[in-house]
Design a protein that fits this description.
Elements (H helix, E strand, L loop, with lengths): L5 H16 L6 H4 L10 H20 L23 H20 L3 H11 L14 H26 L21
Helix pairs in contact: 1-4, 1-6, 3-4, 3-6
Length: about 180
């Protein structure tokens, strides 16, 4: 592992490991529960990540012209990814493992080149992302959806009279009407 990328790699791995840990005891009912009819479910969020992750993997596996380095990075149609929690979690885990492995095998200049190629079609006016952005973006994307999932799990439990699953006694969120 290149020392210059150690923090980016550890940030990605740590986020993914905590993400998976928070899903270990999820029930099938909870996976498909919505607080509102138009809200996303844990299952939909996981499917979204499963659809998005191959782009990140392809981006770290590409050469300097944006060409895949092997056939395993071929893009699949979005509609071919089923709404199957267990399968998507397993496949997302495999994709994350590939992504982290490629990050470990690259250099900072290599990541900068891959970032430039991956984000060459960014919307005008946003400027060029920093060279490490490809590695950083994946961790942030996981973390944002991990937060959504933790929120859904807390809400699910509270609607069933259970204490909040995550930070149940958080003093920064006092009970309404108390104190």
């Amino acid at each position: 592992m290149v020392e210059a990328l150690q923090v980016v790699i550890e940030m990605n791995e740590c986020t993914w490991n905590y993400f998976k840990k928070d899903l270990e005891d999820v029930t099938p009912e909870e996976v498909n529960w919505r607080p509102l009819p138009e809200a996303n479910t844990i299952n939909l969020i996981l499917r979204h990540l499963r659809i998005d992750a191959p782009w990140h993997v392809r981006s770290v596996e590409q050469d300097d012209q944006g060409q895949p380095q092997d056939a395993a990075t071929a893009q699949e149609p979005t509609h071919s990814v089923p709404l199957d929690f267990e399968r998507n979690l397993k496949e997302l885990d495999e994709l994350c493992t590939r992504f982290f492995g490629r990050l470990r095998g690259t250099t900072l200049p290599g990541l900068e080149r891959q970032t430039a190629v991956a984000y060459k079609h960014s919307p005008p006016g946003e400027g060029s992302p920093p060279g490490h952005f490809l590695g950083f973006h994946f961790a942030v994307h996981l973390a944002m959806h991990w937060g959504q999932i933790r929120t859904l799990r807390n809400l699910y439990g509270k609607t069933r009279g259970e204490p909040a699953r995550f930070f149940p006694d958080n003093p920064t969120f006092p009970v309404c009407g108390a104190g």
